[in-house]
Amino acid sequence: MLASGHQALGLSSGLIVMTLLPQIGLVPGTPFETVLFMVFVLFGSLIPDIDTPRSKLGYHFWRGLIIVLLLAFGFYLFAPEYLDQYRNELKVFVMLMTPLLVMVKSHRKMTHSLFFIILLVIYHMVIIHFFNVPSYYFFGFITGVVSHLLGDYVTKRGIPLFYPVYRKHFRFLFTFKTGSALEKGLIWFLSIWNLWFLVTQVF
After folding, report:
1. Which residues lie closer than 8 Å to 125 by C-beta, 6 or more apart?
2. Helix spans in the chain (H)
3. Backbone dihedral region of 196: left (phi > 0), alpha (psi from -120 to 50 degrees) or beta?
4. Tens digit of pLDDT for each residue in 156-172?
């Protein structure tokens, strides 16, 4: 699936999960936290495709990560009080990035499997338990990752659901080719639905 498709599907999934969070007692306290939740959703929806720096998305991601780290270092040297203001958010970002650094190998392997999701769930449970990190950020990130796997599951190539135990690629009964007219139509539909949902909820 194209990156735009993953983002559209991720946003749709995030909006749905956002409406369900209050039922389990998870409500962002401020508008900023709500926006940050959706940022984690969109970030998670692209994460599985950064498993190789040689991919188009992976290349831009790793280059962007270096820029972010350089900016953070600059703020640390010249404006440390600004970093203190967003210390918790930066802590969450760094913790999310750590397990990804050991999974750069090849495309549609570890990061496109159920094992990857299980690892992320366990990792984030440890973070939530030992650090003061709001759990809804975790739900947002995992929502994005799951939406990505669902998006690639309905493509003709499929995904290795049980990697590394079983390397066969699985796919849905009805599939489409990545970049096809059908996928682009789906992206338009999801984008319009997302816009409609946001407008009706806000106004």
Report:
1. none
2. 3-20, 31-46, 56-78, 80-85, 87-97, 114-130, 135-153, 181-202
3. alpha
4. 888 888 987 888 888 88
